[in-house]
UniProtKB/TrEMBL annotation:
Gene Ontology biological process terms from the UniProt entry: regulation of translational termination
Superkingdom of this protein's organism: Bacteria
Its job: Increases the formation of ribosomal termination complexes and stimulates activities of RF-1 and RF-2. It binds guanine nucleotides and has strong preference for UGA stop codons. It may interact directly with the ribosome. The stimulation of RF-1 and RF-2 is significantly reduced by GTP and GDP, but not by GMP.
Subcellular location: Cytoplasm
GO molecular function: GTP binding; GTPase activity; guanosine tetraphosphate binding; translation release factor activity, codon nonspecific; translation release factor activity, codon specific
Residue ranges of every copy of the Tr-type G domain listed in the record: 3-259
Classification of source organism: Bacteria, Pseudomonadati, Pseudomonadota, Alphaproteobacteria, Sphingomonadales
Protein name: Peptide chain release factor 3
Pfam families, sorted: EF-G_D2 (PF22042), GTP_EFTU (PF00009), RF3_C (PF16658)
Keyword Chaperone appears in the UniProt entry: no
Segments passing through the bilayer: none
Binding site residues for GTP: 12-19, 80-84, 134-137
Native organism: Sphingomonas liriopis
């Protein structure tokens, strides 16, 4: 019998404590496997850590991973999202693979820009959110102010589930409002070492504050939470271990199990017997020498078994998945099954792409994994003209992984790449050099943005393309793209060609 699954991500602004909280969740959950360790043995470990250099230099996490832990008979799959805003595209896609999210907020800072952006993505997909207000061991903003800010800025009901009794120097512990039990700091570290007290006697000041809170905010409502209309709020300190066990408990009790996923011809329920899933991320560089890639697939239905044949919808032959990486495996050698909500790493040589649906019968296609219109376009300038082929391969590979987008203009040979953030450009150049041995530079392109074009009537599209040839290009998959000099031009052209659709995102 399979255990229930909770597949979730943590969203936060850099520095709020996501890394610390992740470590503590894994620790409290008795982590069994870290995806970062996949294939990282011997030589490969060195190769991988080379690639990590760019992450270290920038102090950010470029790659993301899957971490799994078990507690009280429930399997938790935590999908890491890169925190840096330049990687929002990657982050957005990861959020398509989770059933719920934990929003970490710094008690001294409240809602910060990146938290808010990620929250909006969750809202688009009605992903339910549990809030964790972190760092209550330090001086923070008044609790009422914080709660009201969450409610106002995110247009969300807030239901406090616990309450910090004092903060910073006055910190006396965290009171669980459901059980009326307080977790107390202990020893020099003032950390939570397991000391709890039921029905504690609090000084009048705190007792009044808590009474006010309970009267002033809505009670937890499971349905409103699951619809994305209400967030239960937990207070704690990831560093000092407060609130971590309660957070795991909340995920276990309230967070939704795998849900039906949007697909064509019809949504796919996790109870469906047929194995289906979609690729939300492709990661290279785990072993640069072999150009190995790992496609991260979220299993949406069926029981996956090692060696199973899965077919990517729309392209390619069935592939036998002989050596899947099953992140939840206690012992990777023995693991050979996965269930809806689990993530499977599928090694491949570039056949699998972000957005691909994989299934046993290839008659279903998951929808809703967006490609975003690039905000920065650059012309790629090759320093050694004999390396054209390598460059094309590299650009195609990275487009496949979703690192950058690539556009091949109809006229001329200057390939153009598009990204949503500056940092992706650096990653591109450094990988061209390190992995493909291609020296290239980037120069400004005469375009500022791009739109995928389509039309109900093929002749309308053809007329448009014929008349605008100098601005037309194809993306990696051969779809027509209009390159525009400005957002203003997009509007202007869109007005003139009312039968042509100009899309800022492309669903794969
Ligand atoms: P991330 O950027 O969101 O991953 O944040 P980190 O987990 O790296 O934490 C950022 C900084 O805040 C680090 O110096 C942590 O030690 C510190 N930090 C994290 N959680 C807490 C907490 O609960 N209390 C205090 N005082 N500091 C914390």
């Amino acid at each position: 019998m399979t255990s229930p699954r909770r597949t979730f991500a943590i969203i936060s602004h850099p520095d709020a404590g996501k890394t610390t909280l992740t470590e503590k969740l894994l620790y409290f959950g008795g982590a069994i496997h870290l995806a970062g360790e996949v294939k990282a043995r011997g030589q490969n470990r060195r190769a991988r850590s080379d690639w990590m250099k760019i992450e270290q230099q920038r102090g950010i996490s470029v790659t993301s991973s899957v971490m799994t832990f078990e507690r009280d008979g429930i399997t938790f799959n935590l999908l890491d999202t890169p925190g840096h805003e330049d990687f929002s595209e990657d982050t957005y896609r990861t959020l398509t693979a989770v059933d719920s999210a934990v929003m970490v907020i710094d008690a001294a800072k409240g809602i910060e820009p990146q938290t808010r952006k990620l929250f909006e993505v969750c809202r688009l997909r009605s992903v339910p959110i549990i809030t964790f207000v972190n760092k209550v061991d330090r001086e923070g903003r008044p609790i009422f102010e914080l709660l009201d800010e969450i409610a106002d800025m995110l247009a969300l009901d807030v239901a406090p589930m616990s309450w910090p009794v004092g903060m910073g120097g006055e910190f006396e512990g965290v009171l669980d409002l459901v059980t009326n039990t307080i977790s107390r700091p202990e020893g020099d570290s003032r950390a939570f070492l397991g000391k709890t007290e039921a029905d504690p006697k609090l000084s009048e000041r705190w007792a009044e504050e808590i009474e006010l809170a309970q009267a002033g905010y809505p009670e937890f409502d499971a349905e409103a939470y699951r619809n994305g209309d209400l967030t239960p709020v937990y207070f704690g300190s990831a560093l000092k271990d407060f609130g971590v066990a309660e957070l795991i408990g909340a995920l276990a009790e309230h967070a939704p199990p795998p849900r039906a996923q949007p697909a064509e011809p019809a949504p796919v329920s996790p109870d469906n017997d047929e194995v289906t899933g979609f690729v939300f991320k492709v990661q290279a560089n785990m072993d640069p020498n072999h150009r190995d890639r790992i496609a991260f697939m979220r299993l949406c239905s069926g029981t996956f078994k090692r060696g199973m044949k899965l077919t990517p919808t729309g392209h390619g032959k069935p592939i036998a998945v002989h050596s899947p990486i099953l992140f939840f495996a206690q012992n990777r050698e023995l693991a050979d099954e996965a269930f809806p909500g689990d993530i499977i790493g599928i090694p491949n040589h570039g056949t699998l792409r972000v957005g691909d649906t994989l299934s046993e019968r290839a008659d279903v296609r998951f929808t809703g994994l967006p490609n975003f219109a690039p905000e920065i376009l650059r012309r790629v300038q090759l320093k050694d003209p004999t390396k054209t082929k390598q460059l094309r391969k590299a650009l195609d590979d990275m487009a496949e992984e979703g690192v950058t987008q690539v556009f091949y203009p109809e006229i001329g040979s200057n390939w153009i790449i598009g990204v949503v953030g500056q940092l992706q450009l650096e990653v591109l150049l450094s990988r061209l050099d390190a992995e493909y041995k291609v020296a290239a530079g980037l120069e400004p392109a005469p375009f500022e943005t791009a739109r995928w074009v389509s039309a109900e009537n093929p002749s309308d599209l053809k007329d448009f393309m014929d008349l605008n040839r100098s601005a037309m290009a194809k993306d990696r998959d051969g779809n027509p793209v209009f390159l525009a000099k400005s957002a203003w031009e997009v509007n202007y052209i869109a007005d003139r060609y009312s039968k042509v659709r100009f899309a800022a995102t492309r669903e794969r």
